[in-house]
Amino acid sequence: FVEGLESLKDEPCITPDHYRLPLWVNTGLMTDAIRSLDHGAEGVGLYRTEVPFMIRERFPSEKEQEDIYREQLKSFAPRPVTIRTLDIGGDKSLGYFPIKEENPFLGWRGIRVTLDHPEIFLVQIRAMLKASEGLDNLRIMLPMISGVPEVEEALYLIHRAYHEVLSEGVNIQLPPVGVMIEVPAAVYQVREFARRVDFLSIGSNDLTQYILAVDRNNPRVADLYQPYHPAVLHALHKVVTDAHLEGKPVSICGEMAGDPSAAVLLMAMGFDVLSMNATNLPRVKWALRNIPLTDAKVLLDEVLEMDNPRVIRSAMELALRRRG
Ligand code: PEP
Ligand code: MG
């Protein structure tokens, strides 16, 4: 069976009724990048820049960051690489930049930290832009966006960094910029965001936790952390519909995209890209190559009428098992 999956590496992700859905990967370290290429990834939907920051004892300099990002961009070129700006706070902290709060998941995290420290943000963007010279496969993504002013401020800083590096002689185009949809407030502002940026990407790990008010890391409430909860599924569906009304592509880069039964629903909802851990990619590809899009859409219609997460999960697993 595993060998069978291995042989799919160079095959496209295409359904029996010829619908093609690009499968990308999430990375953080160079080893992830190499493993992803082994698994036939078509791009990087989320490069978590916190990872290289976490394994150091101080903020990496602009030059160090440039080298780190260039290695990622280069190993995937010409495939697109989505580099997310620093997403610290919440469950991810840096020893050299401690954040102590009562409620870290509702506190100072992601874009909130970097907009309060534009010097960190600007250095990071400048490093990304410089790293992309001659490769042209960079996409910049902003985490934890909850309102239009954050998007506008971040875009202003990105333009500023772009003009700075241009004046230093770097020869690049302004890369596509996207926002993550991972807090409930963002679900209701997709059209406003979509008019200002080039793409959207759902962070379903955080979106699930915030919609259901269930800590994604607390074992005591782990049973309540349900990506198949109707509230989560309806939110995902709405985001895709609204992004497409503005003509903008939308991807998903939470763990959910790496679950074959969930991936079937996500394909039916119309996601333009699914981005997952490299380990899950062969299984997801196998599942999507065995289910026609028309069947997936019928399943989605049925599931959107259901009201129990456990029933939804078993219905999806059963549907997949029936296909082998
Ligand atoms: C998410 O929230 O789904 C996501 C992809 O980001 P992270 O897991 O890094 O918070
Ligand atoms: Mg997140």
From TrEMBL:
It is found in: Cytoplasm. This is phosphoenolpyruvate--protein phosphotransferase. Belongs to the PEP-utilizing enzyme family. The gene is ptsI_1.
